[in-house]
Amino acid sequence: MAQEVRGVIAPGKDEPVRLETIVVPDPGPGEAVVQVQACGVCHTDLHYKQGGISDDFPFLLGHEAAGIVESVGAGVTDVAPGDFVILNWRAVCGRCRACLRGRPWYCFDTHNAEQKMTLASTGQELSPALGIGAFAEKTLVAAGQCTKVDPSVSAQVAGLLGCGVMAGIGAAINTGQVGRGDTVAVIGCGGVGDAAVAGANLAGAAKIIAVDIDDRKLETARSMGATHTVNSRETDPVEAIRELTGGFGADVVIEAVGRPETYKQAFYARDLAGTVVLVGVPTPEMKLELPLLDVFGRGGALKSSWYGDCLPSRDFPMLIDLHLQGRLDLGAFVTETIELTDVEKAFERMHHGDVLRSVVVL
């Protein structure tokens, strides 16, 4: 039977979020209902609220979540009621050309739940953020969006792998393929950038250079594994990175801002035949201009990282195990825990750069 629960919606462009009663239907074939235990407040949710992703309002916000599977629909075999899961927004299909070629992290046909959650007051259909909608006591997702992990981990930290932390770690390990002894620079030290620093540290990078305009963020990056920091408001970051790498530039430069000017810095701060990884998300109107001769003459690779090129079934359990072993401090990303009623204030703190991650605990 359908259930009524509390959830946070964005009713219209740039309007304050509201706590509403929403209707969660019983799971249909291939679907699951998850009791949400915790959900991080991600910048992507703010983009939805601002109308920067689509105008399909109202949105049910929240997507960096972990919780307990409550019920599943027909044909679901990978998860069962009682499983502790992290929700992911790229449920791979297993049938598209990328999946069939053994590259499921590039799946071209990822899917969400077929049924829609609705507003209890009007029956209006809700658009769940990234197909998840987890600023709610319970949510309906495709069963493939549920990834089982060790239940001994705290939901507050596990859910962060559902988006930002996975995006940053994966940008370093999966997309950038950082290796032992490499030099790495990370431009932009918010949640995703700091996760890229942590990922480079996990991979055994010899030198990790964090770049930002905020000294507070640079100090946090040091705690995540950065060996050097550069305040690009005061120092030319390209010159600083070259000076710190013997004049050559970094083997891998990860751009975690998503702006043309910082991308150019990343491009020119890498070594010959080095790699640039764009994991920061640009806005639709942004344009990039580079001399084509420089693109040709410097060689190497220019890559974009979607969700850290992760495969949730492979990467989430591995990273949770590393956390439980004390080798990856996911708790360091949590600045504060809040309630559903505090989401609007969390967006304000995010805008001012006062938090790394606010986490809603239910």
TrEMBL record:
Pfam families: ADH_N, ADH_zinc_N. InterPro entries: ADH-like_C (IPR013149), ADH-like_N (IPR013154), ADH_Zn_CS (IPR002328), ER (IPR020843), GroES-like_sf (IPR011032), MycoS_dep_FDH (IPR017816), NAD(P)-bd_dom_sf (IPR036291). Residues 12-362 form the Enoyl reductase (ER) domain. CDD domains: Zn_ADH_class_III (cd08279). GO terms for molecular function: oxidoreductase activity; zinc ion binding. The keyword Metal-binding applies. Its cofactor is Zn(2+). The keyword tRNA processing does not apply. It comes from the Bacteria. Transmembrane segments: none annotated. Keywords: Metal-binding, Oxidoreductase, Zinc. PROSITE patterns: ADH_ZINC (PS00059). NCBIfam families: mycoS_dep_FDH (TIGR03451). Belongs to the zinc-containing alcohol dehydrogenase family. This is Alcohol dehydrogenase. It comes from Streptomyces resistomycificus.
